[in-house]
Every structure is written in structure tokens, then in C-alpha cells.
Design brief:
- The protein contains 4 helices and 11 strands; from the N terminus they run H-E-E-E-E-H-E-E-E-E-H-E-E-E-H.
- The radius of gyration is 16 Å and the shape is globular.
- Strands 1, 2, 3, 4, 5, 6, 7 and 8 form an 8-stranded mixed beta sheet that branches. A 3-stranded antiparallel beta sheet has the order 9-10-11.
- Helix content is 21%, strand content 36%.
Length: 195
């Protein structure tokens, strides 16, 4: 099954009945923008490859986003500001349609993901924080998302982490987890439970 722009109404409908958990109290706040855009073949998700010279998350795949600053009235403002800075997003080119539940990063940030529809994909990496902007078809993500078992000290349980590889870029960790949560809006379930 190919995903197309006709899925946007379904995403909007599911978001209208979705009750996001909101920011996690007591943690520093951050926000990201999960951007979607249509090609002739599929609905795509935009990812960023972070520069190798950054002090944290160097060379990792992420969504555009970052920490909330004092000038940001809302976390939505944070996500949009960061996307403007990192991938030269023009505000006129995006429609933010909602948010999904906030998640805690391994560095103790509460990260709130917002969903945005791109009207035109003219994003350009800033060359400082972001080395590359690339898009992945939803169909590819659905068919290639995997889980890896890791032993972690989280309630003495083995935890499964989602991941997929696209054109030699590994999407994993919090970014992959937020992708899995987004896929639920399309009624696509990725089983991350222990077997």
C-alpha cells in the first residue's frame, strides 16, 4: 500500500481525537517538527542528519527541533523556530496540524513532537547543525522498522528500541520512537514488546 496526501485527512481526524500527554513536568522543554510532504509516489517523512562536529548527537538522524528558549511563547513556536534555523523552513510552507505525546530523552529533556504538512519541499540544511535534509517514504518506514533488544537498567527489563536504515543512515533512538508513535495515527502498529 502506498501512502499519499489522501492520508492527511485521516491523520487530522485521528489527531482530533488524540489526547497527547503534554510536556513532562519538572524537565527542561524541547520540541521537534515531524514534517510530511507528498511526492508522486508516497507521503514522506523529513529527517535531518546532524553535523559531525556537534557536542551531542553528532552524526545522528533527528527531526528538526531543539530546546525551548525564553522568546518562545509555546512549544509549537520552539519547533517552528528551530526548523527555520536548521532547515530554512518558510512558515508559509507549513501547516502544523497537531502534536503527539511528549517523551523523555536520555538527557532528561521533555520533547514534544508536532506534526506539520509541507506545502513545498524546499528545505535546505543550515550547514552548521544540520549536514543533510532527506525524506523517507512512509511505505519504506512501515516495511523496514525493526526492533533491537538491549539490556538497559530500566526497571531491570530488557527494552526494545525501534530503528530502520535508509540509504546508509540509521534512524534510531528517540527519533525512531517518535516515528513509531506518529505511525499510530495511520493505524500502523509496530510491536515493541518483549517476546
Amino acid at each position: 500500500m502506498r501512502y499519499s496526501i489522501c492520508m492527511i485527512p485521516k491523520i487530522k481526524e485521528n489527531l482530533s481525537s488524540y489526547n497527547p500527554s503534554g510536556p513532562i513536568a519538572g524537565l527542561p522543554q524541547a520540541a521537534v517538527l515531524i514534517l510530511l510532504h507528498e511526492t508522486s509516489e508516497d507521503l514522506n517523512v523529513i529527517y535531518c542528519l546532524r553535523s559531525n562536529n556537534l557536542p551531542t548527537h553528532a552524526g545522528e538522524v533527528a527531526f528538526p527541533g531543539g530546546k525551548r528558549e525564553e522568546k518562545d511563547e509555546t512549544l509549537r513556536d520552539t519547533a517552528l523556530r528551530e526548523a527555520q534555523e536548521e532547515v530554512n523552513l518558510e512558515l508559509k510552507d507549513v501547516e502544523v496540524i497537531g502534536e503527539i505525546s511528549s517523551v523523555q530523552s536520555r538527557f532528561g529533556l521533555s520533547v514534544t513532537p508536532y506534526i506539520g504538512i509541507l506545502k513545498s519541499n524546499s528545505l535546505i540544511a543550515d550547514g552548521k547543525e544540520i549536514a543533510e535534509v532527506f525524506s523517507v517514504p512512509l511505505n519504506f518506514i512501515k516495511n523496514n522498522m525493526q526492533k533491537e533488544q538491549k539490556s538497559e537498567n530500566w526497571d531491570n527489563k530488557k527494552v526494545f528500541f525501534p530503528f530502520f536504515e535508509f540509504e546508509n543512515k540509521m534512524v534510531w533512538g528517540l527519533t525512531a520512537y517518535m516515528t513509531v508513535e506518529f505511525l499510530k495515527l495511520l493505524d500502523i502498529e509496530i510491536d515493541l514488546t518483549r517476546k
